[in-house]
Design goal:
112 residues, mainly alpha, 6 helices, 0% strand
Length: 112
């Protein structure tokens, strides 16, 4: 494809043409095109598997997990069961009134 033909094409098309120019200077045969197409499909499938696997772990980072971490930390610091329970209840109430961004900002501000 010429530079003129590439105008307005998506970035991935331009990248693919650049790869073809860089690694197949003698041109691209139909077999090579099929190979590149297959590699592109496989990379897409691998990305999808990784994306889905990451999504399947979303439960691991739920509010319940966050409270569990807090309870474990409280116990490690010597909090009584009653103190740990009060802390867990306070955190659960906070989930309802604080966005993730606000909580992150509070943590960052606390560190500095």
């Amino acid at each position: 494809m010429s530079s003129q033909q590439l105008k307005g094409k998506p970035a991935f098309v331009k990248e693919r043409v650049q790869l073809e120019r860089e690694f197949f200077r003698q041109g691209v045969s139909q077999d090579m095109i099929r190979l590149l197409d297959r590699v592109e499909q496989l990379l897409g499938q691998a990305y999808e598997v990784g994306y889905n696997a990451a999504g399947s772990n979303s439960e691991a980072w739920s509010n319940s997990s966050a409270v569990g971490y807090t309870i474990l930390a409280a116990k490690r610091l010597g909090y009584s069961d009653d103190q740990a329970t009060q802390l867990a209840r306070a955190i659960n109430r906070q989930f309802d009134v604080t966005t993730i961004g606000e909580a992150k900002r509070a943590y960052i501000d606390f560190l500095h």
